[in-house]
Write a structure and sequence with these properties.
The complex is a heterodimer of chains A (59) and B (534). By secondary structure, chain A is mainly alpha-helical. Helix content of chain A is 56%, strand content 0%. Classes of the chains: A mainly alpha (59), B mainly alpha (534).
């Protein structure tokens, strides 16, 4: 279970590296085009996943 | 605009902050009681005792450099969406390097390694491979230091300094700044940038938060800012700019972000920041806390579009517009003078912190893996520290010489090359942390093949925007390899593929030929948490 948690790290890595999924301007958020806010959104995802993996390791 | 007046308010605020930081740099030698700086662990790694908070400031100040702060927005200003690759790059880097960093820190602590080349030499039983890794690190770091000077110069130009000649050069303010930096780094070692990083980051955060709130309000909101950027890109004939990526650059964008992320923690200055940490827990906490800087970088990148909306133009020197002056020019036009002075000081100090760490890291490599490994095997700890201190001066003098003698564009080209070549150390370093299956000669030949392939690809990449024929950018056209496609790719990754292929194929061949393999000097238990001693 703990070991499997590590693979969650792949989620933000793969998500942020697929410009095919976010190369457009709509929908906008606070007037900011999709391309920009969607990529910034991966930051908190990365932090959450890293925290989960680090918190779940034994030492 | 060849003769701008000097802005006295900006300059006064700038000099006060810069002076305070200089004093801090000298006081740092006494900070956290270094009993004896005559040991490389003390001078070169700050005593290996930095906790989570100091490490956060140190690595943050180390990775997010002044050049980043001026160059990323400048890239968005000029090319649009492509410049935003800095965001996915810094999103993926921490999840990617988490376990690499933990294993590297652990083995370095267990065995007393100061540099990544120490580890490579011991792991693969090959000082020669260690030397190759060390030289790659030094070569990749030098232009990076030179770029920090370009960051300082962009600020000075905006304040109206650096257009007056003095002692036969107009680069004298940067020379003075670097002289000061060189002296206190020599004295205080890694403690100096660690202490200054607190001030630098506090200032940077204040400036960036103010900028991303106040400037959009002043300019009529993000809607207007993005519309202005869209109009600018629509009016240019360049098919590669725009608010989103042209289809042909999607692969390039993705591989550039990935390759840059893989390269980041192979740079000597990143490793130095990591190895100075006190514990594995410190590194774990930082891998979750460092992305705060990435958020700041993402917001900062948008300053490039704000500059477009504000009608900011780069300063022209010697007939050429300098795009790196975009951010300073934006601050100059949008902030009150005193606050612009604070912002400029933040950028300039933001250049000194990484420049200090980079020169220390390069100096550690020279002292350990060139001097002690090859010239003076009997060198004592005191001698190693002394050699590193002197080497740090030479490295900085070299960076200044590069700026004085060569075009700034040359440093930018070299830094582009630096990212590609540092990536070629990945098999020996990162794969080496998990396996010593590879034959030492296969790793060395793979490294050489990767370097050659990477340099060849960069050499044939033109830049139509500024009529350069070679080293024109970090996106390589796959059509040059005979593929029928318009797609581009980051050449560093392709070169790494060549490197790995050579290493994988040659390892069984060399074994078959019974070429002596290296002996691993580490134990499996060195890579994990230290056993509890009772």
């Amino acid at each position: 279970m703990r070991r499997a948690l590590k693979f969650l790290l792949l989620v933000p890595i793969v998500g942020a590296l697929l410009p095919w999924t976010y190369n457009r301007t709509d929908p906008r958020l606070f007037d900011i085009p999709f391309f920009y806010w969607f990529q910034l959104m991966w930051l908190p995802v990365g932090v959450a996943v890293t925290a989960l993996v680090v918190g779940g390791s034994e030492e | 605009m060849t003769h701008r007046g000097v802005n006295t308010v900006e300059l006064t605020v700038f000099l006060i902050i810069f002076g305070a930081v200089t004093i801090l740099g000298f006081l740092a030698a006494r900070w956290r009681r270094a009993e004896n700086l005559d040991h490389l662990d003390e001078w070169g790694l700050g005593g290996r005792n930095f906790g989570p908070v100091i490490t956060w400031f140190l690595i943050g100040g180390d990775l997010y450099t002044a050049y980043t702060f001026v160059a990323v927005p400048a890239l968005l200003y000029g090319a649009g969406a492509l410049g935003f690759f800095a965001v996915p790059y810094t999103v993926v880097v921490y999840p990617m390097v988490l376990f690499v960093a933990l294993r590297l820190w652990s083995v370095a602590r267990a065995r007393g390694y100061v540099t990544v080349a120490d580890f490579v030499a011991a792991r693969h039983g090959s000082p020669g491979l260690g030397l190759a890794i060390a030289l790659t690190g030094i070569v990749a770091t030098m232009p990076y230091i030179a770029l920090q000077l370009i960051g300082i110069e962009a600020v000075l130009k905006t304040m109206g300094i650096g257009t007056q000649r003095f002692m036969g050069t107009d680069d004298w303010p940067v020379i003075i700044a670097f002289l000061i930096l060189a002296v206190y780094t020599y004295r205080s070692g890694l403690r100096a940038p660690a202490l200054i990083a607190f001030v630098k980051d506090a200032l940077i955060y204040i400036v960036v938060i103010t900028a991303v709130i106040a400037i959009p309000i002043k300019l009529g909101g993000f809607d207007h800012i993005f519309a202005a950027a869209h109009d600018k890109f629509a009016a240019t004939p360049n098919p590669n700019d725009g608010l989103t990526l042209p289809h042909a650059n999607l692969t390039g964008y993705s591989t550039l972000a990935l390759g840059s992320a893989m390269a980041l923690f192979l740079y000597p200055h990143s490793v130095t920041g990591l190895l100075a940490a006190r514990s594995r827990g410190t590194i774990k906490r930082n891998m979750t806390a460092l992305p705060a800087y990435s958020l700041m970088l993402g917001l900062l990148a948008l300053l490039g579009y704000m500059a477009i909306a504000a009608g900011v133009k780069p300063i022209v020197t010697g007939g050429k517009p300098d795009p790196n002056t975009i951010v300073p020019q934006l601050f100059d036009s949008q902030f009150p003078e005193w606050f612009a002075g604070v912002a400029f000081a933040a950028i300039a100090i933001g250049a000194l912190v990484p420049a200090a760490i980079m020169s220390i890291a390069a100096a550690n490599l020279f002292s350990r893996n060139v001097w002690t490994a090859y010239l003076r095997p009997q060198a004592s700890h005191a001698e190693q520290a002394k050699v590193a201190r002197l080497a740090s001066l030479v490295v900085k003098a070299g960076a200044v010489a590069v700026i004085l003698v060569l075009e700034p564009q040359f440093s930018i080209d070299l830094q582009l090359i630096g990212g590609v070549i540092i990536l070629q150390t990945l098999p020996s370093v990162v794969l080496g942390l998990w396996t010593c299956w590879f034959h030492r000669w296969a790793l060395l030949l793979g490294w050489a093949a990767g370097l050659t392939a990477g340099l060849a690809m960069l050499y044939v990449t033109p830049n139509p925007a500024n009529h350069k024929h070679h080293f024109g950018g970090s996106l390589y056209a796959l059509s040059k390899l005979g593929f029928d496609t318009k797609n581009t790719i980051y050449p560093g990754l392709l070169a790494l593929g060549v490197n790995l292929l050579v290493a994988v194929v040659l390892t069984p061949v060399l074994r078959g030929m019974r070429v002596a393999a290296g002996v691993d000097a580490t134990l499996a238990s060195d890579y994990g948490p230290a056993p509890v001693r009772i």
